[in-house]
């Protein structure tokens, strides 16, 4: 399987396209804005003006878009992926989306003799660039095995999670766990500043112990530098947390930590900060410091 159609060439999708091409795959691509894809087009990806032409005749179709509504738009309808994929093709949705939607895609694809996998990822822009993403896959095991070499070009931790929707459910668990970790890193930094610690020294100390995490090692330095460039958009994390909340409610589960972190991010989004990276949550903890500085000046 060497011919791949890739839909959604954004922050992470672009790096995934590059890694696929580096490993010898022939890529056709489609995205909303061609101008943002000119660099990968120059590197060898073939631009298509619509989904129909992007997926026609391809062995594998990969999608990496934004929201569940985007996934629906891409997969369904006369001009969508399922209607235009060749018989026996493999459809891999790597968007983080609703598990219920992934099951719907799987069932519709099966009726068309097409194989569908839900394969959301974790690792952000850094993982996408380095080809070290964690990939959580749901669908038929035979389809997972058939696509394993494709996954290996983009990730290093590639796990079959179970039937259709299980990849998305695993990603929801990832996003639930992540919410508390990001907030806790922010709170550790805020506390260190308040009590007069050298925060860089403090982080170097606790990162090597039981409190250490990927977020503390990779995201905390960006917080300190006030580098809020999106490896993962706040607005997209809000989408993920809302899906997780809905799925938890369906099974009668309350997630108080997730709901509180969601509230903080929604407040930032309401202030026009949704296009910043998730590490910008530290700004919520700096508000008191800013207010205190202003009152001293007054």
Write the layout of secondary structure elements.
Blueprint: E1 3-7, H1 13-22, E2 26-30, H2 38-42, E3 46-47, H3 51-55, E4 60-63, H4 68-75, H5 81-84, E5 90-93, H6 99-111, E6 115-118, E7 121-122, H7 124-130, E8 133-138, H8 141-146, H9 148-152, E9 155-162, H10 166-194, H11 199-207, H12 214-224, H13 234-250, H14 256-270, H15 282-297
Parallel strand pairs: 1-2, 1-4, 2-3, 4-5, 5-6, 8-9
Antiparallel strand pairs: 7-8
Helix pairs in contact: 1-7, 10-12, 10-13, 10-14, 11-12, 13-14
Offer a quick outline of the entry:
This protein is of the alpha/beta class and 298 residues long. The chain contains 15 helices and nine strands.
């Amino acid at each position: 399987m060497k011919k791949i159609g890739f839909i959604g060439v954004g922050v992470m999708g672009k790096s995934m396209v590059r890694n696929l091409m580096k490993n010898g795959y022939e890529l056709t691509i489609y995205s909303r804005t061609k101008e943002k894809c000119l660099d990968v087009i120059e590197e060898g990806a073939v631009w298509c003006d619509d989904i129909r032409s992007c997926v026609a005749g391809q062995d594998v179709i990969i999608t990496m878009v934004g929201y569940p509504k985007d996934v629906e738009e891409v997969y369904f309808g006369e001009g969508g992926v399922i209607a235009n994929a060749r018989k026996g093709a493999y459809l891999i949705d790597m968007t983080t989306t609703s598990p219920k939607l992934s099951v719907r895609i799987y069932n519709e694809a099966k009726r068309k003799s097409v194989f569908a996998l839900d394969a959301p990822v974790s690792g952000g822009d850094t993982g996408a660039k380095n080809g070290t993403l964690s990939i959580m896959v749901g669908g038929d095991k035979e389809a997972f095995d058939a696509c394993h070499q494709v996954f290996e070009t983009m990730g290093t931790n590639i796990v079959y999670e179970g039937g259709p929707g299980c990849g998305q459910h695993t990603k929801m668990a990832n996003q639930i766990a992540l919410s508390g970790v990001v907030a806790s890193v922010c709170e550790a930094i805020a506390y260190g500043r308040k009590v007069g610690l050298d925060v860089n020294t403090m982080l170097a100390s606790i990162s090597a112990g039981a409190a250490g995490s990927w977020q503390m090692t990779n995201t905390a330095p960006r917080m300190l530098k006030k580098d809020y460039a999106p490896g993962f958009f706040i607005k997209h994390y809000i989408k993920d947390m809302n899906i997780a909340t809905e799925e938890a409610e369906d099974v009668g589960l309350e997630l108080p930590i997730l709901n509180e972190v969601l509230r903080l991010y929604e407040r930032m989004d309401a202030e026009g900060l949704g296009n910043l990276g998730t590490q910008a949550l530290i700004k919520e903890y700096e508000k008191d410091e800013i207010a205190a500085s202003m009152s001293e000046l007054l």
